[in-house]
Design brief:
By secondary structure, this protein is an alpha/beta fold. The chain has a single domain (about 30-170), classed as Double Stranded RNA Binding Domain (2-Layer Sandwich). The protein is built from three helices and six strands; from the N terminus they run H-E-E-H-E-E-E-E-H.
Amino acid sequence: MRLENMLLHRWSKLVLFLALISVFAACGVYSPYGAQTSGAQTFSVEYFKPQTPLASPEIAQNFTEALKDLILRQSTLSLEEQDGELQYSGSITGYSVIPVGVQGDEVANVNRLSITVKVRYVNTIEKELGFDRSFTKFADYDSSEDLFSVEASLLEDINDQLTQDIFNATLGNW
């Protein structure tokens, strides 16, 4: 009786193992980080040109580097200078500061810095996953503060949000 139970137990473990393998195999090619890479090994990111007068080349360069860094950290892909299997390009199309949180005396107590990035994503392995899409994120700051004194930290927060959204839209495609 014990031998039968032991064999049944081993058999059930094998069936469970095979079922799990078939489920994961049906879901596509994923990296250990959860990124769906379509089997790609490389990616490339072109410089995101500023297309709005308020976005400086430094802002565009910082965004471009932040996107590269995030993909390197959250996937197993290798960065190519150009023509990666997964290709990112685009431009910064919006950079604005607007007042929000208007008080009773019609004075804003908070300002909002918003950035919009237009992204062209090309997946050379699974072409149907490519897209042209805009992403917008913002960060608020106290209106008593000068934008230039808080801009660097705001841009860092916005870049974190934008790059994560782009990563999720391209490689987190579950």
